[in-house]
Write a structure and sequence with these properties.
heterodimer; A: mainly alpha; 0% strand; B: 0% strand
Amino acid sequence: MEGQASGTPFLIAGYLITWAVLVWYLWRLNRRSLQARRALDFAGATRPPIETQEPNDE
Amino acid sequence: MQDLPEIEGGSAPLLGTLTLIAMLAGTAAGLLLVPADALQGSVQRLMYVHVPAAWLAMLAFFVVFVMSVLYLVQRDPKWDLLAVSSAEIGVVFTALTLVLGSLWGKPTWGVWWTWDPRLTTTAIMLMIYVGYLVVRAFAEDPEKRARWAAIIGIVGFVDVPIVYLSVLWWRTLHQPPSSPRSMAGEFVYVLLLNVGAFTILYVYLMVRRYRIAVAEQHLDERRLVRDDPAAG
């Protein structure tokens, strides 16, 4: 039983590390995604082509 | 040039929600539902993240292999972008597998690390795919980058079945592959639940990472055209 109890910190560390890696990788994907979105917006790549834009009455 | 997909939105939020539910269910089942192993105690519950993480990594590298072959045959950049997306995810989860294995090894084997065939071949696998990503980072010409990466993606995959079979081929400290024949039913169900959750996680991460890869390719092509108008 003593040996079993001594394994618990390793178990907790394992699950915490697993979730930490998931959160870190998703954060990294979100940040890269945002950077790409901003760069594409800046380059005008995500705007619709001129001919498909709604006519502006003003 | 690939069509530019939505970087965010589309099916990703729904898939993300499904992934979160599956991962939480897997974690809850592994920590709370299933009983502790009679010999190892609670630390054996690390199996429910260690084995699925290893499965995800091997699945990811298999996808790299298939996409690399497709790229060399068809020369469609789409396959290269899928390959690099999968390779990056595979590297993250191989590293996680090694860390979890080390955490499991210390209380059961008494050491954090040993040059056991399973551990050594897994470390080599990690190095191969880190190399794959490094080669990509250094190659500026997109076509050369994709071609070299595809060759590494195919040749490097040789190590993946060796990792799997290492516990059968050599006398090792690592246990043989877990299977329904070697485990009680409730352990198998929880393991399968977690393998399923990690598989959904892989699909979700692939969707997110591939969209970024396509967006970055668009940006690269725009930079090339700006720097060298003749290239456009």
